[in-house]
Amino acid sequence: MTADPLADSSLRQQLLAMIARLPDGSMALGDLLDQFGNDGLLLLTIFLTLVFLIPVSIPGVSTAFGAAILLVGLSRLRGKPLWLPARLRGRSIPTSRLRPALDRGLVWVRRLEKISRPQRLPALAQGGMAGVINNLAFILAALLLMAPFGFVPFSNTLPAIALLLFAIGFLQKDGGAVLLGHLANIATIVYFSVLIGGGGLAVKEMFKHFGLG
């Protein structure tokens, strides 16, 4: 069944329906993507980001979901249907562990639906150079989501918020939400820079402590 992101029901209602249809135990990532189809790629992106909208994410999920979102961004940039390599399509997703995180992530969708305004600054959300820049920023957010900092609080949350803002902004042609997505990307880069810088300083101090520096 293909979900339609432009249906009359709200994004939250559509996502609730998708969560309810998840099987117990696990399912292949490819089977999950097939339920959305190419017409529902942005709704799929929102669905995949929900699990990261909590301070600490489920280990191992960010790589698979981040890769899928990255391919969604590339398909949008190229104007081509979504393609997923067989290895990624067959990746098992622990639905029983994901469902509670997905339910909690819906709180963010409800909040953003309240502040989002359809057709607000639409020129910033679609078409021309703005569309290319936005899709590149979407791809950047997916790459940041895949960064190996999943054990650090908020390292997955910040890029997930950026992706959620981009997806809602694209769906509703809301340039304001898209601009907030760019700001969330910047905040993620700053946060990662602090993590990397702090880690380097800690290593340097350790070497000095043991007389190796």
Folded structure, characterized:
By secondary structure, this protein is mostly helical. The protein is 65% helix and 2% strand. The protein is built from 9 helices and 2 strands; from the N terminus they run H-E-H-H-H-H-E-H-H-H-H. Helix 4 runs antiparallel to helix 7. The longest helix is centred in the last third of the chain and has 35 residues. Keywords: Membrane, Transmembrane, Transmembrane helix.
As a percent range, the share of strand residues is under 5%
Low-pLDDT windows of residues: 1-8
Shape: globular
Mean pLDDT, to the nearest integer, reads 79
C-alpha end-to-end distance? 61 Å
| Number of DSSP strand runs | 2
Give the strand order, joined by hyphens, for the main sheet: 1-2
Q: How many structural domains?
A: 1
Helix content: 55-70%
For the structure shown, list the relevant keywords.
single chain, transmembrane, 213 residues, ExoD, transmembrane helix, globular
Summarize the structure.
The protein is an all-alpha fold. The chain is built from nine helices and two strands, in the order H-E-H-H-H-H-E-H-H-H-H. It has one domain.
Write the layout of secondary structure elements.
Elements: H1 11-20, E1 27-28, H2 29-36, H3 41-49, H4 61-78, H5 86-89, E2 92-93, H6 95-115, H7 128-145, H8 157-172, H9 175-209
Antiparallel strand pairs: 1-2
Helix pairs in contact: 1-6, 3-4, 3-8, 4-7, 7-8, 7-9, 8-9
